[in-house]
Amino acid sequence: MKEISFRSFLVVGLTLFSMFFGAGNFIFPPFLGNLAGEQTPIAIIAFCLTAVLFPILGIAAVAKSNGLHNLAKRISLKFALIFSIFLLLIIGPFFAIPRAANMPFELAIKPFLSQGLQASFMPLFLYSVVYFIVNWALSRNPTKMISTLGKILTPILLILILILFAVSVIDPLHSSSFLQAKGNYATHPITTGILEGYQTMDALASLSFGLVILLTFKRIGIQDNEKIVSATIKAGLLAGLILMIIYMMLSYIGASAGAAVGLFKQDPKNGAEILAIATGYWFGKYGIVIFGLAMFLACLTTTVGLTCAISEYFITITKIKYQHWIIIWSVISSLMANVGLTAIINYAVPFLGIIYPLALSLIVLSLLNNKLNEDKFTYSFVIYAVLVISLVGTLDRSFHVAIPGLVDLCKLLPLYDQSLEWMIPGVVCLFIGMAKIKLSKKAI
């Protein structure tokens, strides 16, 4: 029986990291560091809970249940279908893919265009067409994609990030200690860091990437299911470890830049601006080239991984072939990219406020499945309670739509002001479900 070689495991682990590490992963940690200042260590650890720990747990959950659909159908087949499609569209052509594709254009191409061209739709349109032709070409063969990302693109990306961090230590931007935290990081650094981790969308993506990694091990000839599950979880741990180290490096650069007097003419609007100015400070005119290349590689590896993962799922619920799905997603993503980066980021937030609590709850339930024994009551009780509470809270905060009675009850829940009001009710529902299971066993 064929064994999984260390080389194959390493390539898959690096590939999984590159699939996770996209536009949001690049820009949110330095922005966190810039805002958190002296609170950066505790804020980045909190950030890693939703941006590293839960993605790893998500990979494990999908590996053990053999796919997102099998995991979600423990509530019901209808829920599994609706949840899976909704989640994949969010991390796919409607939000994450066009956001990632748009980032290199905004930071490395648009600044060099004339004001007339910047106001025109044509440059972004042409760029998006070219970008998604490349994305489609790399997505055509999932096994080859794993090899390309793991052996070539990921090492280049890691080297570029390590260069940035090494220079930030050798030639630090700041001349004194980090500044005081700003905004919510000054009062609630932990919960703010946790919520910022939502923006990476990695816990959502892990529920899809896990299946890609499982299928990859099968395609290279591994037949033992236990070995495949074990190797997939270990690959997730390797990817998570690299992610955590990179996040800490990038947050340090952001905190360091925040303490650099006179570096910014005004407060930066996002982490991309921080990194662009920092690389320009260190490398001059070559900085934008280095930064643009690193950003392009980070975004391309993620969009390719997402395109493959989403297509792998949709061929299981439709009669449309894989090769056709990657064309469909590339075309839709290309069109969505033309909406613009700021608009994409803004309209994604409310949807994340609904889907993220569900995904995190589903991951926890899956990891406790040995005790829950796929009990439909417990799964449904927790998931639907979290859904209702997060939906009511999101409608109130994002759209100012107050559902009479329910919104008043939700506002009484702990952590409502931090957008985490669903957590404690979810835990309570879980304990109630587990108590019911124990009582049912005793009755037998």
TrEMBL record:
Cellular component, GO annotation = plasma membrane
Q: Which domain of life is it from?
A: Bacteria
Q: Name one GO biological process term.
A: L-leucine transport
Reply yes or no: does the keyword Membrane apply: yes
Q: Name one Pfam family in it.
A: Branch_AA_trans
What GO MF annotations does this protein's record show? L-isoleucine transmembrane transporter activity; L-leucine transmembrane transporter activity; L-valine transmembrane transporter activity
Q: Where in the cell is it found?
A: Cell membrane
Q: Which UniProt keywords apply?
A: Amino-acid transport, Cell membrane, Membrane, Transmembrane, Transmembrane helix, Transport
Q: How does this protein sit in the membrane?
A: Multi-pass membrane protein
Q: Which residues cross the membrane?
A: 9-28, 40-63, 75-97, 117-138, 150-170, 198-217, 237-264, 284-314, 326-345, 351-369, 381-402, 422-439
Similarity comment text for this entry = Belongs to the branched chain amino acid transporter family.
The record's NCBIfam families line, in alphabetical order, gives: livcs (TIGR00796)
Q: What is this protein called?
A: Branched-chain amino acid transport system II carrier protein
